[in-house]
Every structure is written in C-alpha cells, then in structure tokens.
Amino acid sequence: MERTRSSSAAGDATRKRKRGPLQDISNSSKKPTRRVTAKKAADVSKAADVAKPRASTRRKSAGTSVNSALKNTKSFTDANKANKRVAVAKKTVMRAKKRKLEGVENQPPHGKIQTVLAFPKPQVKREADKETVQQLQVPEEDDNQVEEEQETQANAVKREETQEQQAGAVVAATAAEPHDEYAPRPYKFVFDHSSSCFAEKTYAAEVRDIDAPSDTVSSHHAKLVLELDAYYKKHEMKYLPEADYIGTVQVDINEKMRTILVDWLVEVGEEYELDSQTFHKAVNLVDRCLKEIKINRKQFQLLGCACMMIAAKFEEVHPPNVEEFVYISDQTYTAEEMLDMETQVLNALEYRVASTTCYGFMYRYMKAGCNTDEQRSLVSYLCDFALLSYHMVRFKPSKLVASAVYLARVTAGEAEPWTPTLHHVTKYNPSEIQGCVEELHRLHAIESQVVTTQRDKAKAVSEKYLAEKFQAASTVPACCKDKLTESFGKYSSS
Fold first, then answer.
1. One fold for 239-355 and 359-492
2. What is the DSSP letter of 246?
3. Of 135, 349, 407, 414, which has the fewest CB atoms closer than 10 Å, so is most exposed?
C-alpha cells in the first residue's frame, strides 16, 4: 500500500511537472506569474525613483511634440478623404458618360448582385513612445503636395472628358459615313476554239458566255459553276457503271428484267414525289451493285428498293421510310430484309454514294442549247428514258446530256443543231457524240410510236412526261433518220 501511494504520488508529481511548462508557455503573452510581476514592479519602482527628475523635465517637450503630430495627422487624414471623394466623383462621371454613349442613360442599373470581398487590415499596436511619435510627424510641406495632387487629378479628369467627347464625335462621324461597296475581282471570259469544228472568226463572233455575272448572278457564283462543271467532268468516269455484268456476274438477270425494274423505280418516284435526280442516283447505284454483288431474281426488286431508299436519303429532304418501301413492294419483303440489303449495298460500294449523274450537266447544257421550255422538257425526257436501256449505260453522263440537247434541237427544227456556245460549254463536237445521238434517236423513235398507237403499253417514264408541266414531251414525234444523218454532215466537212 505504501509503495502504491508513493508511486501514485510520484505520478501526480510527474503530471504536474509536465503541465507546468505548457501552462507557462501558453500564458506567457497573457498574465505573468506573481513572482515575476512582483519583481517587475520592484524594478519599475526603483527606475521611477531614479528617473523622476528626468521625466519632469521632458514632459513639456513630449507633450508639445505629440500635439503637433496629432495636428499633422488630422490634416493628412482630411487630405485622404478629399482624394477619395474626388476619385468617387470621377468614377460616377465616367459611368454616366459611358451609359450615355451606349444609349442606356435612362435604363435601370444592372440587376446582377455584385459581391465585393472586404478584407480588414491587420491592426498594429502603437506604442506611445518617442520613436513612434516621430514617425507620425508629417512636415508642413505635405499640405502643399496634397493640393497639387488634387489639382493634377482635376486636370486629368478634364482631359479625359475632352478625349471622350472627341472619341464620341469620331464614332458618330464614322457611323454616318457609308461603307465602301464590295468590289469583286474581275470576271474574265476565256474560250478555246482549237478543238472545235468551227472557224476562229465564226467561233469568236457567235460564242456566248452563259456563266457571265449579271444583276442576279454574282461573279463568285459564275466561278463556282465553272469549278463544279470541271469537278463533274473529272469524276464522272470514276463512278461510271460498266455495261458488262449481264452474262458475267449476273446469270439469273437479263436486260428485259433490268428495264422492268428501272421503269418501276420511275413509278416509285412518282408515288412519293421524288426528284428526277434521285431516280438517276438510284439507277446508278443499281448498275454499280450488279457489277459487285450476285443477285437472283427474287432479290432483284429488293435491290431496287434498297438503292432507291439510299438515293432518297442522299438527295431528298424528307425521304420515304422503310415501311413505305415495304408497302410499295406489295409486302413482298420485310423491313428487316430491306435494311439488310441496304447494308450489303453500302458495303459493296464502300459507302461511295456521291456519284455524278446527268443532272450534274443538264442545267448548263440546256441553258447553252435550249431556247424553249419544250426543248428543255424533251431533253429531260430523253435522259430519263435512256436509263431504261442497258446499252446506254456505257455512255458518260456529260455525253448523254449533250446528245439529248443535239437531238432535241434537230427534232425542234433548229437550223444549227450545234453552235460554238455548245462546244464551249460541253467541249464536244458533233462527231464525238454522233454514236450516242443515233442510239438515243432509235430508242425515241420506238417509244414515240408506242405512245402514239398503243399508249396503254407505254413505259412509266413516258406516262410521267405526258403531264402538262412537262409540255407533253413524250408525245413529241421522233425526227426523220435521214434528217439526223444530214445534220452531222454540216460539221464533218468543216
């Protein structure tokens, strides 16, 4: 028991020893202990007894210096307040003028809440001793400096106001002045007659620039049309189908079946009011796929639906959906089968859908060679009808459109079926398109006779062009073959 008490007493003494230094450190800045306080008081009393005669002599001088320092400090504080008032007034004037220039003088202030964080300055303890009083003393010359600074700030405000007024006048004058009109680069009409069948004088006198800028056509538009024509000419052979797949790749499909499918695609386009360009794109996709994919008879119409669906998605704004193609095919195929065939077509073509068709050249060629709406409708009819024939696949789209223009001019009775303007635009001579023109004339003559005698057996494309909006182009009789042959003789002898 005694050992236990002694050990506990030792432990208490140890804990007291540990707390002692921590207590002394934490309270060193707050309250001194009694012994230290007493000792300091004794020292202070002794120092006070020794310094009494000295303190009595210095009280007057210290009091006068403190009073003067306080006076100078007050004047310095007043100067700072005046400077702040000047700065606030300056900011107010600047904001008012800015709102006036921006036209928002009478608008209410901004509704956003602007938060300004104010951080208080650290408080510094001041000791009323001689050294601190000397630091607070401000010479009398500072009053003059404050006045000079105020005058300088006032002059700066006036200068800024004058500059703002001048800047506002310059802005108003600039806004009143009209902008310079845009001057496009000059458009140059260049032609080359060296490869034509016309004489140089005749060519230069009769050639016409159909792409020239006008009130409705800018020079940029004219240059863009020429660039597009060059692009189509360069890429038309890249996606041109090869007319050799029947009998080689396709064993179960013949030319007649292809004609029936293409004619049915015309009906699909009319049913859903699709553009003729979509029809041309679909036929191009069909011919290119038949070169790559082996198809049997049961899948042939399915291939046509898939190609028409892809072409409609590429060309139309609101293409028909897959359910409408299921309906138009009389429920022969399901939606899943059509989507699967669409995937096969895209994979076979490597997603190269943007091919060049006749509609890449039709607008410019008709503008160069067609003078009436009847001739333009006949050219469109001949280009659409040519897609039904498997033998016409081998001709380039540009050559097919040029041949249609030539045949339309001969059929309309034009004295000159070919002109320097047509050569300048198409870059073809009559001798270069003669074979395509004769094949196109043969097809037109056969269909023209069917439309005249047995209209119920006419193709869907002929029924389409019986409408008044196409000037009943399918009812125009084909020209005489001898007349057509004679027209080529004019240019071969030149």
1. yes
2. B
3. 135
Q: What is the per-residue pLDDT for 78?
A: 72
Sort 249 into a burial class: Cβ within 10 Å, 0-12 / 13-18 / 19+. middle
- Structural tokens at position 72: 């100078």
The one-letter code for the residue type at 284 is: N
Q: What is the pTM of this model?
A: 0.63
* Whether 482 contacts 421, CB under 8 Å: no
The DSSP annotation for 82-148 comes to: HHHHHHHHHHHHHHHHHHHHTT-TTSPPP-SPPP---PPPPP-----SHHHHHHH---THHHHHHHH
CA distance 403 to 420: 15
Please, what's the b/e burial string for 315-346 (b: 16 or more CB within 10 A of its CB; e: otherwise)? beeebbebebbbebbeeebeeebbeebbebbb
pLDDT by residue (tens digit) across 317-341? 999 999 999 999 999 999 999 999 9
Please tell me the distance from the alpha carbon of residue 190 to that of residue 217, in angstroms, as a whole number. Answer: 18
Amino acid at 176: A
Task: Identify the DSSP state of 80.
Answer: H
Which residues touch 465 (CB under 8 Å, ≥6 apart)? 377, 380, 381, 384, 472, 473, 474
Write the CB contacts of 215 (distance below 8 Å, at least 6 apart in sequence).
none
The structure tokens listed for 118 are 């104010």
Domain ranges of the chain: 239-355, 359-492
Task: Please check whether the domain covering 359-492 is classified as CATH 1.10.472.10.
Answer: yes
Which tokens hold the place of 219? 């020079």
Select the more confidently predicted residue: 492 or 473. Answer: 473
The mean pLDDT of the chain is 79
pLDDT tens string 451-479: 999 988 999 999 999 999 999 999 999 99
Name beta bridge partners: 246.
250
pLDDT (tens digit, 9 = 90+) per residue, 398-438? 999 999 999 999 999 999 999 999 999 999 999 999 999 99
CATH no. of 239-355: 1.10.472.10
Q: Are 368 and 422 in contact (CB under 8 A)?
A: yes
Q: Is the pLDDT of residue 397 over 90?
A: yes
Neighbouring CB atoms inside 10 A of 387's CB total 26
